[in-house]
Design a protein that fits this description.
The protein is an alpha+beta fold. 31% of the residues lie in helices and 25% in strands. Strands 1, 2, 7, 8, 9, 10 and 20 form a seven-stranded mixed sheet that branches. It has a seven-stranded antiparallel sheet with strand order 17-16-13-14-15-12-18. A three-stranded antiparallel sheet has the order 3-6-5. Strand 8 and strand 9 form a beta hairpin. The radius of gyration is 24 Å and the shape is elongated. The protein binds dihydroflavine-adenine dinucleotide. InterPro entries: BaiN-like, BaiN-like_dom_sf, FAD/NAD-bd_sf, RsdA/BaiN/AoA(So)-like_dom, RsdA/BaiN/AoA(So)_Rossmann.
Amino acid sequence: MQRYDVIVLGAGAAGMFAAIEAGRRGRRVLVIDHAKAAGEKIRISGGGRCNFTNLGVGAERFISRNPRFALSALKRYTARDFVARVDAAGIAWHEKTLGQLFCDGSATQIVQMLLRDMAQAGCELWLGCALSAVRRVETGFEVDTARGPVGGASVIVATGGKSIPKMGATGFGYRVAEAFGLPLVETRPGLVPLTFAAQELDWMQPLSGVALPARVSCGKTGFDEAVLFTHRGLSGPAVLQISSYWREGEAVVLNLAPGVDVAAFLRGEKQAAGRAMLRTALGKLLPERLARHVEAQAGVAGPMAEMGRATLDQVAQAVGAWRLVPVGSEGYRTAEVTLGGVDTDALDGRSMEAKGVPGLYFVGEVVDVTGWLGGYNFQWAWSSGWAAGQVA
Ligand code: FDA
């Protein structure tokens, strides 16, 4: 049986980063993935430009049973550290918005950088190789693979979450955790479009393609970003963000004109141009199709001069606090991330090693640490992978 110092399960962002670090320390590293290519999610990320980190990393931007757990790794390997590596590789980048850093060119540059670093660090990579089990043995661990069993002093589990099964997501890492008696926090799709019942879709579908900046809230949490109406319901960054906080049965509240006192605006419009239709006034705040929809929903016709204050207040309420109850989400099929995972209580935050199972590490999305949209999830993959790579 072939033996290695470190076997990394999964050649995604976290696994490749952990492998590079362990390899640079002189460890003999094998990385195994059942996919045909490494870093497939990196390749398609950020619309093909990879939003590889965010300059605003902080505990409040991560969802976990213990959001402070992630801080140790995030502080030891920071966004600036990753930027320095991207710079050293000669990859041009830009800040798009909200601290989000993207490649100027293509996300494949990041994949190529990681593959090159892995090769330079002497890491071996087995692609197209299925994994079936991990066992503890006297010398460390044995991993059952499609190429037969391999032995490793340490195993780093970096198989990600359940999001996008079509791309090879399996939930294998959760099974490994369970096999070693580690607790799991219930998993659910995150950063995912929200779906609606037929009665809502009847009016939403004609709005499909309409996008606008808005504030979307659920309980006390809210995000100011774009909202997009689709033929299934709501999407766009603000909706993806809130989906990670939304639970079945809850409402989401849309403010379609954040920062605007809509009631005062409508009163002003009525005074200035009383003969104008409501949709014309609303069209100064909203895309035309949406303005027409709000007018129709309000059941009003005729010029604004004929509308009383109560009617205008009602319209303002519809624009500023539009309450909608999703029936669900598009699920793991399109979710960018998986919330939940290996309970952080079971891991050492400095090394990502499982407490009570020396030599077994969990990094990246398989852990119960999920970032907001905007580069936070890759930063978690780099930071947690880096932490494990220092010690495994
Ligand atoms: P990741 O899922 O990347 O890697 C896991 C690897 O394990 C995969 O290569 C998989 O094939 C392999 N594997 C799984 N099960 C296996 C098994 N049973 N046997 C063998 N191998 C197995 N984040 C961000 O910060 N900025 C962004 O721009 C984006 N954009 C984005 C777009 C889209 C469409 C998605 C789906 C996701 C994003 N993300 C993102 C999220 C980001 O991609 C994600 O958080 C990281 O890829 C997680 O890295 P991991 O290495 O933990 O898992």
